[in-house]
Design the sequence.
């Protein structure tokens, strides 16, 4: 990179610490400066146009230039730019949004609590698991089970739920009380000759063994993202949640569905829970809740959890949890407008109509010699890049093959992110069939080039 003194690039390198970035490499590479958004595209400071194949970070469901959301924010800022909801204060957009969410809930829910990020929502859900069990007189039922390769965020509690090594390593995580059970990825962990259903049974049995080993009276909750998006677009094997939920019911363990990515149409259903027959006690959501135009997240709780909070308030005198910006008027106004747009434009119907093409193009790339497995659901999918298609041998992390594929894609006008060795797609939900074709055409060129690069570097 040629960096001019005092350019934005130079000032970025001088002053900004980037999330999820190799801090050493960034000093050499500098940033890609994004200057503008237009539909499913973003445009960099040199005027290059990219298809945003990941919807930013799995979130910009309505693309990058939805004026109705801009206007909703502006209107709200003029009327009431900020007010909080502590001590029983309230305002119209938070109330309307909560009511709408309860109506959309995939299972009966009672109340909505607002926060600002997916991590905060999951932290809150984790605290509520503990609070609930104290309230109902089972203070020993506090351990929480999540899954290997799950992604639930980066705050101390949610990073502990996350089951990815880089989120724990040298951060002294996970904290105690958090356990990880098997990752339900059939392609990687299914055994020779095992059917998907048998694999699901094995995962469920392994979960039950963990519960029995720890003592069912100590296990408070199971956290699950319906389809594990960031962990590598892991679609649960058939019958998985049916079997897992039977075990959770047997030992009276709460189910928390992390709908931060799956929520609001990504899988072709309003919530991912509906796609897989999940019946959660709490649901966390963020990202597409506001189409990413404002930072906002929410936790829906069922009546049984709410009753416990009421009982604790009677005992303690308050519910001692909340963020300054819980239910922020501008964020709730934008989220409300987002939900109205989803309904008026039948975004769910649109996803259902274009998803077959999306999945067909994804799975066609699954035939590529560099791709071991193509998997997805609705408008999310991934291509797992492997060294040896026949044996499924993976590349070493230091080979940097997915990073290379990401770079090649960027050179061809497609932005995605390397998640392990996964070349991932999670574009804005408004993407048309023509744009889907263009995204996969360009990605195919990038994958062909990466294959050539891997060969010349002796990686294949
Ligand atoms: N949960 C899931 C499933 C996510 O994918 C993410 C972020 O990607 C989070 C939680 C954390 O959300 P945030 O980055 O807003 O804290």
Sequence:
């Amino acid at each position: 990179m040629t960096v001019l003194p005092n350019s934005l690039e130079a000032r970025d390198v001088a002053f900004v610490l980037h999330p999820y970035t190799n801090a050493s490499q960034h000093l050499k590479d500098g940033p890609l400066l994004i200057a503008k958004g237009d539909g499913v595209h973003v445009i960099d400071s040199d005027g290059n146009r990219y298809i945003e194949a990941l919807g930013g970070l799995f979130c910009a469901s309505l693309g990058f230039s939805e004026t109705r959301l801009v206007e909703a924010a502006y209107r709200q800022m003029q009327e009431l730019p900020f007010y909080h909801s502590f001590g029983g204060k309230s305002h119209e957009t938070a109330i309307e949004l909560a009511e709408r969410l309860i109506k959309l809930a995939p299972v009966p829910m009672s109340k909505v609590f607002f926060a600002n990020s997916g991590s905060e929502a999951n932290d809150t859900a984790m605290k509520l698991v503990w609070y609930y069990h104290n309230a109902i007189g089972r203070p020993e039922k506090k351990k929480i089970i999540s899954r290997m390769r799950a992604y639930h965020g980066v705050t101390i509690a949610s990073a502990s739920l996350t089951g990815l090594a880089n989120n724990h390593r040298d951060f002294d995580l996970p904290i105690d009380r958090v356990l990880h059970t098997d990752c339900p990825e059939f392609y990687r962990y299914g055994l020779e000759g095992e059917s998907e259903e048998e694999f699901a049974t094995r995962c469920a049995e392994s979960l039950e063994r963990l519960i029995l080993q720890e003592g069912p009276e100590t296990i408070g909750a199971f956290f699950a993202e319906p389809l594990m998006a960031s962990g590598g677009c892991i679609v649960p094997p058939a019958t998985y949640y049916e079997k897992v939920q039977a075990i959770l019911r047997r030992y009276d363990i709460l189910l928390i569905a992390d709908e931060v990515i799956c929520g609001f149409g990504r899988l072709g259903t309003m919530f991912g829970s509906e796609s897989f027959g999940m019946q959660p006690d709490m649901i966390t959501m963020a990202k597409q809740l506001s189409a990413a135009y404002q930072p906002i997240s929410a936790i829906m709780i069922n009546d049984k959890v709410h009753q416990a909070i009421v009982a604790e308030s009677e005992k303690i005198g308050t519910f001692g949890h909340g963020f300054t910006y819980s239910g922020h008027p501008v964020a709730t106004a934008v989220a409300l407008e987002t939900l109205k747009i989803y309904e008026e434009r039948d975004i769910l119907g649109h996803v259902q109509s274009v998803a077959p093409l999306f999945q067909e193009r994804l799975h066609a790339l699954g035939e590529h010699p560099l791709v071991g497995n193509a998997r997805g659901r609705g408008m999310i999918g991934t291509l797992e890049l492997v060294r040896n298609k026949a044996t499924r041998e993976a590349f070493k992390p230091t080979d940097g093959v997915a990073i290379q594929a990401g770079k090649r894609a960027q050179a061809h006008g497609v932005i995605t992110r390397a998640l392990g060795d996964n070349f991932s797609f999670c574009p804005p939900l408004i993407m048309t069939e023509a744009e889907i074709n263009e995204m996969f055409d360009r990605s195919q060129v990038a994958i062909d080039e990466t294959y050539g690069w891997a060969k010349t570097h002796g990686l294949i």
